[in-house]
Amino acid sequence: MPNNSSVYLILWVLLQLLVEVNCQMTPFKPTIASKFFYLDVSVPFNTQQLSWQDLSNTNILPSHSGAASCSGGANNNILFLYGGMSSDQTMALVYTFDSQNIKWSIPKFMAVNAIRKSDLTGVCLNGIMYLWGGMSGDLFSNDMLILDTINLNWKEGSLIKAPTPRCQYGATLLPNNNIIYLGGNDENLTFDPKTLAIDNMGTALTLSEVYIYDTIHDNWTTKKAVGKIPPNRAGFSTVL
């Protein structure tokens, strides 16, 4: 018959094995503290038991908010992350994430003539990333930055008939190579650029007008919405 110390040792080993097996079986669930994770939607999945994968150990980015991202590169398998607000002065303007090699990098541009913006939406088409509006420091913007994610160069789109400066709008790509923009917040939204504390929420912009950017001809048009117009809004997602 084993002595007490042997019994305790066996129980301790069994407990450790149970904890280890339980940790391996417990699925990862994103939290506010989670920095970088993904969900594979290319395979069937259960919405009640989402199979999230944690990649936080690969993360090299400083803490930030309000950045824009989309897929680009020659094979459309590189995640491009642009801009955002950060108290860390070392934060680069653009980062890339290689989804094949699971690696973050800072791309090298021949010349960087683009400004840092935040609270905007990035829309990609054929390796080109369109970055309209957003915040530049504490100023609202309505310029169109265009990033060629294949050749790594910048240019600017037309401002003629562009929407008024705004951030936190909705945007998505249309089938005819156009981008639709709607809603958002304008200069009525004020905040402290150092602490990011909001002083005045302002009034979200109307959805009675939508704005179309033609990526082929580099021009803007405004369309009037009809039907039952939803309430003004900002900070929402738009998906076609």
From TrEMBL:
InterPro entries: Kelch-typ_b-propeller. The keyword Signal applies. It holds the Pfam family Kelch_KLHDC2_KLHL20_DRC7. SUPFAM superfamilies: Kelch motif. Keywords: Kelch repeat, Repeat, Signal. Residues 1-23 form the signal peptide. PANTHER family: ACYL-COA-BINDING DOMAIN-CONTAINING PROTEIN 5 (PTHR46093), FIBRONECTIN TYPE-III DOMAIN-CONTAINING PROTEIN (PTHR46093:SF18). This is Galactose oxidase.
